[in-house]
Records
---
Amino acid sequence: NMECGDEAVRGLTTEAVNLLAAFNPYVNVIAEVSNKRECEAMVERNFPGQLAGLMGRLMHRRLGNNPNFIKVLHRDPGRYSHFKGSSWELSSAMVIGRSMYETDRIPKGWKKPANCLVNLVWVPTGFNLRTFSSAGIP
């Protein structure tokens, strides 16, 4: 699940698109986005044709009847609670939070959701690993 946008979430959107493209050859990937129409337009404007086409296909792909899937929330931990109790949470084998933050401290409100609402948190760099770990997020 990811947000899609040009402004404040542009960096996170770019990361999510590239992560999905990297996983796609190896696992069955779907892209669940906050606003499909807005995301399709943003991807078409900002990504090369082949990558935009892949994202379009992933946004329309369905999960099917497989109960053993991994859900990746590509958002900051402060927004994980928006998905608490949704149908995917109840049926997924694991929920991974995927986040980053460009400062040496994370907001206080992120610790509880990161430790309680997801099974683990993935971060992209050693810097982010140190930042999240020092805040008590393993």
---
Amino acid sequence: CCGAPIAFKRDVFSVPGATGCNNAYVNPHGVVHQTVTVRRVTNVVMEASLPTLRDTWFPGYAWTITYCKSCGSHLGWKFSLVTGSLFAKPHEGGGVSHFYGIRGSAIVDDVEMQDEGEVQGNENDMAGVD
């Protein structure tokens, strides 16, 4: 796709209750999405629909589909804490107010996009849309 930057490596994190920051999740249609969770994104737009709890992978979080602002490719989902949720309470350290799940197939490390030997990768590198 377009290679637009979408997230910094330093923003990758493990959602409380998950088994890591890179997991496989299956939607109701049987499609497996290898997903990386990040705190912040850039160059991303949300689908014009209300967040839903239906078939959420993270109890207490509603999801909205996200797209690349530059090329319109499906990047993943924004997960937002539902007010009054019994599952995740950010003020108690057990959750976060929102985060993003980016499809692994949509990510390309910016080091891979550079000429060989030109850039050394680090935690500040951007990940872009593949």
---
Amino acid sequence: LKNQAGTGISVVDGTRIENAAANAWTPWSQCPDGYSAVGLAEMNLHSERSDADLIATQCNDNGCRLYCGNAACNVKARCMKGNGIQFQNGNKIQSSGNKWSDYSVCSNGFVPVGMAYLALANGGNTDINDFQCDQTGCRA
């Protein structure tokens, strides 16, 4: 992101949720008024357990939250606003494990800035190892 003069683009962090309970959605990390959540600024699992997992992430108009399996966790949203900036989710993609998913792509005229939702389909018997967002879209 390059902030050109006159765009009024501003990027800030949302509220920091600390030590949210394991095996449940965290409270929402909320953005300041006028800002939209565009992804995660921070995610941290508090566990040395081998079965501690990030099960899901979700960012929308409420902010961002996590579902952390077998570990307490922290979450903080990354938030953006600017003159004339519009946000829209890409299409929903489902994929089997052990390979890259297809890309979730944006509508014409939009570019990806982060993942709105990412979840393990089997509830945590695997791990989220990688995700990628580029000009094509986002995939995991």
